[in-house]
Protein 1
Amino acid sequence: MLEVKDLHVTVEGSEILKGLNLTVNPGEVHALMGPNGAGKSTLSAVIAGKDGYEVTSGEVLFEGKNLLEMEIEERALAGILLGFQYPVEIPGVKNIYLLKAALNAQRVARGEEEIPAPEFMKLVREQLSFMKMDGSFLQRAVNEGFSGGEKKRNEILQMLVLQPKLAMLDEIDSGLDIDAMKVVAEGINSLRNADRAILMVTHYQRLLEHIVPDRVHVLVDGRIVKSGDKNLAHELEARGYEWVLEESAA
Amino acid sequence: MSAAHAFLQRLGERADDEPTWVAARRQAGAARFEALGFPTKRDEAWKYTDVRRIAEGEFTLADDAELDEARFAALGMPLDAHRLVFVDGVFSAALSDLTDLPDGVSIEPLTTAMRTNHEAIGGAIGRLAGVDFSPFTALNVALSEEGAVVRIGPGVVVDKPIYVVFASRANESARMSHPRVLVMAGARSQSTVVEHYAGEAGAANFTNVVSEVMLERGAIVDHYKLQEASSEDLHVASIHVEQGRDSRFTSFNLNLGGALVRTDLVTDLNAQGAETNYNGLFFVQGRQHVDNHTLVNHNAPNTFSNENYKGILNDRARGVFNGKVVVKRDSQQIEAYQNNANLLLSDRAEIDTKPELEIYADDVKCSHGATTGQLDEDAVFALRTRGIDEQMARGLLTLAFAGEVMDQVRLPGIAERVERAVAGKLPERFNLSDLVEVSDALEEA
Ligand SMILES: Nc1ncnc2c1ncn2[C@@H]1O[C@H](COP(=O)(O)OP(=O)(O)OP(=O)(O)O)[C@@H](O)[C@H]1O
Ligand SMILES: [Mg+2]
């Protein structure tokens, strides 16, 4: 589904990704771990299409198509959703507007009719209660004044409404209290099926107890230096990154 | 012959059966205007606004108010309201609807009001805005013929909005009009007055209106000025408000159209407890020019003013905001807040913004701020990552910017009209009404 091949990315003159390879197949959940500043968020930004990231070589394919040539919104319409590490506050744009506009953009792109208001409301309410969020969140401006945890829940709410094929969730677990972690994890798990894939950036084993990954990767200094199954995450939790660095240097 | 003199030629064109004192006032206006001439950029208050297009234009006064229902329907709003309609300044009885006026409310064209009650009306008119305020008010005094006179008795809560439409037609040759609006709101009365300036596509007329609103003790007036002149229309307006004790005035100055637009809004808070709220929004594009000059005079202690003006400028449009607050000596316990925010959608658009505070008292809570910026690119990106195309994303964010002012609008018809107009000025299709519908459905549920 997602193939990242020998990706080199430069930000403001310095190389951040230095030959990154990663393949995510439908049905899989991957966890991407690694020290601060390794380039995890950079990878999500490049996949989402954010300005300011120069791809100097390598490619990114999504379902066989060259992602890097697509507009930001085209990538979303193709089925990619980025859950931000720091969700943006959008004063004045109601959550409900964003959800409706985004959902309709998808439907129009598929050649379908825009969703009728009652049907839309039903769908949103269901997901809202699944996320244990109050109805008032819909009338509030996107993320404005939301607590850290509320912002993260809101990202998952958008994901549940939009049902992406590939969800890239960047530190979705940071800032969540213990109960919220469960709710968010349930949200993510509800999306799992044989056709979808999830790529989660996280620093902690705890999220991975709720959402058991198929693969765990360690990203260090712009490259994936080690991959393994869920046990790798346990090992990292216990031993830190030092040994991985040594191993990869050897 | 000077430009000013050329305009005053029109004075002699009308048969004069006016009372001599009215004619004398006209002459005074003419003399004042001729002495002042059109303002130039050397005049501080007109530094950024060049009125040569008006001064050098040739305009005649209209003689008829012909406008069929269909053309009118394309301009007016379907408000459930008491309606007075003027076409290029001439009263149209056919398009007006003054049936079922509640007791204690009188709404008349100026000529009628003067015929029946010229002393009371003539005495009130010009009290707040005479010949000295600006060359344009002087010109208005010289040439004004028609207008709207609204009188609301004490304690009367007017059942519907009072909707005054000034339609500007696409004429073969350019017309000018110098209307007056007079609103006398009795003690503890409550009313909503809408002045709607609407131009047909291709209209290229000059409107020079002067409005006076007088609020007696405890009166509440919501005043809307919705300006949707054509992209060739020239529009100068001056609105003067006088407030008695515990009265509350709320202004919505919404400018969407016009080639050259200048509005002055002046409020005198003359007694304790008086409160004035200025809400402004303008959206200009192409080479439109909109200038708003606002002034609040805190002439009495314990008075309150709050101002929020927002401007959206696209293409090579130009905006001016000058907001002045004056707190007189011994006017203690004043609160005066002012904010002006502008959004530039193009790097060739320009805004000049200047808050001015003159405070001669010490117990004053006062704040002001002015910001000018572009759309938040991180927000544009965030929306696009959800599949919303760039135009739509920018549209949503632009509407969001206007929203803070629009949320204050209490007349749903106007809020919707302005939102649609703002959305309609955005580069691409934008299905706003649908979103609003969803949001409303949600609120009801
Ligand atoms: N706009 C930028 N200008 C300069 N350097 C940048 C920019 N964006 C990212 N970087 C640098 O790129 C490196 C990788 O950043 P990135 O955000 O991808 O790290 P990360 O792996 O997500 O880290 P964390 O775990 O702390 O979130 C960092 O050293 C960061 O400072
Ligand atoms: Mg990061």
Note: The CA atoms of residues 9 and 325 of chain B lie 38 Å apart.
Protein 2
Amino acid sequence: MRNSVGVLFIILVVIQTFFAAGETILFSFWIFSAKLEGLLFALKLGFVLANIGGCLIWFFAITTEKDFVLALEKKGLSSKASYVVLSTLQMVPVLKKRSETIMNAQRARRVETEGGLLVRAKVFVPTIVPLVLSSIQGTEERALTLEARGFSVETKSTHLYDIEPKPVDKTLNIITGLVFILIVVGRIVLCLI
Amino acid sequence: MPYIDLKNVTYTYPLVKEPCIKDISVSIEKGKFYAIVGANGSGKTTLCNIIRGFIPGFYQGEIEGTVELEGKSLEEYTLGELTSKIGYVFQNPFNQITGARDNVYEEIAYGLENLGVEVPTIRKKVEEVMELTNTAYLADKNPFELSGGQQQRVAFASVLALEPDIFVIDEPTSQLDPKETERVFDIIDKMKKMGKTIILVEHKIELIAEYADDIIALEDGRVVKFGEKHDVLSDLSLIEKGIDLPQTVLLADELRKMGIPAKEKIITKQEMIGQLKQIMGK
Ligand SMILES: Nc1ncnc2c1ncn2[C@@H]1O[C@H](COP(=O)(O)OP(=O)(O)O)[C@@H](O)[C@H]1O
Ligand SMILES: [Mg+2]
């Protein structure tokens, strides 16, 4: 995830520099020639990309899913939607473990599970079918479990684990808002001049 | 007045022709421990779902007859009321982990959160039930990473935290080893001593003979015997109906056939020892 933004950046620069149409040739070898217009365009786009990607990566590196979903819930996300997100995240490692168990079981039954692309494609059915079926089978019971835990009760729920915005959060919110407005206004002014 | 009252209940699942609960009438008294026994497919789980109010609501299908709790039809209760009155624990430990929370402490608290209970009260209750179910040492663990027995105890704790008066428990030990089975029965026994009404489906007949008060025996959707455990478990005709009887009942029967005057209705090891001592004149 972290590296993918960098890799994307480099690919972008290379492709744009060498293959985009342009007049100003920086240098050339064999049949390729690097062009300034392409390079500049690639840098511009690349920085935008790195900016957005970096923000997202940074955000999720310092924010747990639990906090993120809880904050959304407090802003009005339904508790059902937040359950879907949280339980899915929790289920991923569980399913991964279960699929390993199934793989092992199938290997014991002499189903080839390792090898080239074709072998792996063939093993897809005997592993994915039991995985999906066993998950579906459990859903009715899990639905009853949730029912028995008051999942559909329409009382406003309380939160044992809670996050309260600190005063500094409020200040940061205001500053971010101001900076945002400044940038927008700045752009408009620059266009007008 | 009976606590829970089923009158002529017949129930058919959707898309099925035959009813799988046929004209069942039973009265459940408050504070007693009932065991439901019967062969696989005899309708035990379905009966539990009827008592819990999941049938017909959750499953749809057609139900006849009446089910009353404290003189009021189950349909007149709201979901929240039923949740805090009747707790439900069932077979598969893994499927009773909600997946909504990533540690055991919060998993147990989840039901209380949904019911909107204040946080200090939640903490108090969670800590109480963790003590009761011996799960305090698991508090910070991820519920999905526990053993089956541990998950089952967490399931009990999660339900106990809601403080229902009635517990419907469907084959809680069928996936557990003997040690964990014992722990589960320990919890059920504590619940009984707290005055809870317990309805338990269980195949381990020796444990039923020891802990339960009354027994409901099902065959093919009908109640074939209902009453005090000594009366039910000494009925040898139940064997043909796919219901296990305690070893001691069979042993006493053998003794009688051999001309040794063993009493009827010996259903526990302790009672058998007393009887043998008497026969041998000690
Ligand atoms: N969701 C369902 N839809 C249709 N038939 C069902 C359903 N659940 C159970 N049954 C049928 O109802 C009968 C009783 O099942 P169940 O109550 O699960 O028995 P037990 O718990 O005693 O093993 C069985 O014949 C079963 O096949
Ligand atoms: Mg069952």
Note: The interface with chain A takes residues 52, 54, 58, 79-80, 83-84, 87-88, 90-92, 94-102, 105-106, 109-119, 122-123, 142, 144, 155, 158-159, 162 of chain B (CB under 8 Å).
Protein 3
Amino acid sequence: MSTVNFATREITCKIVYYGPGLSGKTTNLLFIHKKVPAKHRSDMVSLATDGDRTLFFDFLPLVTNAVKGFSTKFQLYTVPGQVFYNATRKLVLQGVDGIVFVSDSAWNRMNDNHESFVNMKENLSEYGLTIEDVPYVLQFNKRDLPDAAPVEYMNHLLNREKQRVPHFESIAIRGIGVFETLNAISRMVLVKLISELSQNKE
Amino acid sequence: MPRHRFITPDEQKQLDSILRELLKNSDAKTAILLDHGGFLMSTQGFTEHIDPQTIAVLAAGAFSTTRELAKMIGEEEFTVMFHQGRRDHIHLSAVGKDALLVIIFENTTTIGMVRLFAREAAKKLASILRIINQRKSEAPMGNIKLQQ
Ligand SMILES: Nc1nc2c(ncn2[C@@H]2O[C@H](COP(=O)(O)OP(=O)(O)OP(=O)(O)O)[C@@H](O)[C@H]2O)c(=O)[nH]1
Ligand SMILES: [Mg+2]
């Protein structure tokens, strides 16, 4: 749910990075945090285990000037990918406006990618949402791996809903594809918000 | 739940002033109003050295965690949480169905006072939030455009 505050002239949207364990969700946020100038972001909050696995979420707020006359805030979250953290994963989805589905390109993770995608649809349905209600993009991460699955195959596996969505190849540890992904999803979220608002005006 | 939420300048002023009154009456230090998703709706009082947005996100996480815990043991909900420190304490309470109030206070006041005025403020806040949340997206939207 986006919030438009006419007192502070702020629009706030929530973007969630979803995907199986170790696919590189936290790495995306760490790179964004490193590259965005301090005046456009605050500190990143990571609720993680000692071994750096996400336990509850990572949180990184960004401020942009994407909308005329408003300061537009994107709140970026990651979910914990490990299967048994589903209760907290569900909580993070509350009020989501856009999703980046981060998949792992390693051949032996295809099953996990698919399972996580199905799990995402289940968790959305708990909030009365279907995948058609929420703008999302696919990120095929770890393209540097020698055994990376072909992009066509990953699209075949994950990009098979009625509405095909944009996909991005990335190497998040080197920052490749990270901002392309973020720019695409933030634009999709705002375009949807604006179109819903103008429909309601008539 | 509406798809989007609009807050008018007048509503923002009312939310702010209820929190200020709460601080004055209870002698607490900081009051933060947020929704269950961690979205910050108002911050009043002392905010040096603290980041209200981060506090809001963590408080929302803590609250939703305890809510799930409550469900697991068959409780409807824990409506109040209290974290006691040596000097600073945090009081977290539900406001209506989808908002939360975080109050930070020192030993200059008591938990009893904070609880009393938090309850009073929550009622007033909830009635304003109800108006905000029931609003359809017909707000004065005219000029929302993407920057080229
Ligand atoms: N080779 C390679 N490794 C990567 C890439 N991106 C991330 N990694 C590594 O993959 C591991 C897991 O990355 P994280 O970002 O912590 O994964 P996550 O998706 O947040 O995992 P959970 O928090 O458990 O859900 C780390 O060791 C990263 O350095 C990549 O593009 N290529
Ligand atoms: Mg992680």
Note: The longest helix of chain A spans residues 178-201.
Protein 4
Amino acid sequence: MLEVQNIDIYRGETQILWDVSFRINQKEIVAILGANGAGKSTLIASILGLLHPVSGKIIFRENDISKISSHAITRMGIACVPEGRHIFQDMTVLENLEIGAYSKRARPSLNKNIKWVFDLFPIMNERKNQLGGTLSGGEQQMLAIGRALMSKPDLLLLDELSLGLAPKITIDLLKTIETLRDENTTILLVEQNVEMALNHCDRSYILETGKISIEGTAQELMSNDHIRKAYMGI
Amino acid sequence: MNSLFFMYLTNGIVMGIIFALSALGVSLIVGIMNVINFAHGELYIFAGYISYILSVKLGISFYFAIPIAILTIFIIGILIEESLIKPTYGNDMYSLIITFILSIVLQNFALLVFGPFPNKPPNWISGATNMFGLFRYGNQRLVSCLAAIGIIIIVFLLIKKTWFGKTIRAVSQDRETASLMGIDTSKVNMLSFGLGCAIAGAAGVVLAPIFPVTPLAGVEISLIAFIILVIGGMGSLWGCIIGGLIIGIVQSFGAAYISSGYKDIFGFIILILVLFIRPSGLFGRKAL
Ligand SMILES: Nc1ncnc2c1ncn2[C@@H]1O[C@H](COP(=O)(O)OP(=O)(O)OP(=O)(O)O)[C@@H](O)[C@H]1O
Ligand SMILES: [Mg+2]
């Protein structure tokens, strides 16, 4: 579904990603794991068209999207739950969800998708007239996921789902993500919480200072000594 | 309380609403794009001039002259945004300087084309109304005030209820995330700059029958708009309404009970007081 081919990414003068390649197949949860500052969010920004690679390609369903602007990429069926959630604070929960369905492909099924999100996260229905900024951290994360789902994306990017959330809430959300995969949404999960992510993904890549160092299935990585030492403290 | 008090109050409220409308367009543009449009007052007077030419020189009824004038300013606004503002994105200082220069260019253009004398489209309505048996108040002012209220309500509905309004609010709150929702943020910039200018134009056509336009009349309009902007809080629409009312009422009472010679100073005094108490303005930032 998504194939990243040898991209080099700069922020200003500084190179952040070096020759990064990976692929995500349809109906897979792929996790990109790495420490603070490894370049995970930069990778997400590149897929979303917020940054453009100086070399390499990003192929989404046969199209090279590496030079397309972010609003056009979203309209092609990629949605994202950004790091730190980025809820529209002064808009209500309902308005946040509606704006998630802004793209033309999503608007006709707006009401159906709102119902779908409310079924996934009933608390959103209770809070629907509350301003986004007044929600708790966990609720904001649900809202960010719901808002992304409103566009009925084929590919969902999740940046640091666990950030600032209690482990139980994170695990519940990850279970929801697994349900979404089973319903045919493809998922890219970016995490520094390695152990938790490996428990809920199919395949994974390790990103170390801007380069992919290891890749494999979740099982393979969980039994990899280097990863157990460096990331799981075992 | 005598009837004079109520007359000053009425006048203050009417002027306040009119001021609020004159500031609404700049406020909208600041809130969405972080661009301060110094040419705001000049767009206002150009709308006044256009409605004057259409109705006085060409004899077109004001029902048509008004929408044509507003539409023209909307299109001019979009052209300004595409040609002058777009290249400055990311540098607020450049856009400030450019709109400042534009305002001077437009003033001189107006002077060349229309001459230094005041021009005034005909009143929509004549006569005066007896207010609650206390005093008589000019009908044109009342009607202009009602039109201003109508325009303000339309702008609020547009922003609170429509898809376009939602995209405007999303962009003003978090531009990057808005683009991740599929919103073309440069297009939103273009349209909202046009809308801001169109509101300036609407204020111009509504007020030109009361305050005839001169090439320099825009300066005072801009000045009051910026005072209101700072008092109400940059980019806050409610702040704009409240700020306008405060200035209108204080000016009216100040002119009546202290001295009409100091009329313009009252605004600055309030401005300084508000900045002392709440530097971010009464409604803070970003509450579109
Ligand atoms: N806007 C920016 N301008 C310049 N450098 C940046 C910018 N954002 C991030 N960087 C740098 O890019 C590198 C990678 O940052 P990135 O945010 O992609 O890391 P990350 O893996 O997402 O980290 P975290 O786990 O803390 O979210 C870091 O060295 C960071 O300092
Ligand atoms: Mg990050």
Note: Strands of chain B lie at 128-131, 135-138.
